[in-house]
Amino acid sequence: MPVPERLGVVARSLLRDDAFRAIRDAIVDGTLAPGERLNDGDLAQWLGVSRTPVREALARLEEAGLVRTKPGRYTMVSPLDLRALRGAQSVTTAMHELAVREALPNLSAAELDAMRQANARFAAALRANDVDAALAADDEFHGVTVAASANAALRSVLEQFTPALRRVERLRFSSLTGRGSVAQHERIIALCEAGDVEGAVAATRTNWQTLAHLLETAVDEDEHGSDEG
Fold first, then answer.
1. DSSP assigned state of 66
2. Where exactly are the structural domains of the chain?
């Protein structure tokens, strides 16, 4: 399995969570591509850890739908699966709607300002075609209401299902289709500031549902690419 040449990117003293995040991020950013076989020894060498945290990380990634395992045969990066992605989108959308509903009654002026600043960084990243920065700013924007909801269960669900969608969102934010999210974010902020809970929830739903068409496109492209390979 080809892995990045840079070794030891995770310090040996760090635990399985760090291995999980490093492998997850490599899958999300495409360093480890859909369908690629994974070897725990190669991953352990790359991350600078033992095989145990790598195996634990791979088990968690399988639960998140990013890794597929057939015992005794292979472990691989999950191909883009439309049904799984639709499921992840539905759950993620519902969690962000819930976050807005629970956060809005007590959302402070400082938190609204944090959303504006995140959206400004998001817009700037899109203009610069910086996909990584756009994804980070989008996370920051939605993370304000997630944090303000103070709902640990909600955060846990999002941590499990969001990474699968981020693989697809990289395509969205590298194209003109991502530009509409800036205006959608602005509308969410305005509705939150106005105290319109139902309006803000609906606007949040609309923002996350814009992924629907891209999910099908991404899966079609992945399948065609696999056929050609």
1. S
2. 16-77, 82-221
Tell me the two tokens of residue 170. Answer: 């990289």
* DSSP 8-class letter at 31: S
Structural fold of domain 16-77: Arc Repressor Mutant, subunit A (1.10.10)
What the block records as the tokens of 117 is: 């600043």
**Other CB atoms within 10 Å distance of the CB of residue 201:** 20
**CATH level 2 (architecture), domain 82-221:** Up-down Bundle (1.20)
Q: How many helices (H) and strands (E) does the chain have?
A: 10, 2
Q: Assign 77 to helix, strand or coil.
A: strand
Q: Which residue shows structure tokens 């299902």?
A: 161
pTM of this prediction? 0.80
Q: What are the CA-CA distances from residue 62 to residues 161, 184, 213 (Å)?
A: 11, 32, 25
**Gyration radius of the chain's alpha carbons:** 18
At 155-202, the pLDDT tens digits run 999 998 898 888 887 766 666 556 789 999 999 999 999 999 999 999
Sign of CA dihedral 11, 134, 142, 221: negative
CA angle 162, 168, 170 (to 5 degrees): 100
Residue 38, SS3 per DSSP: coil
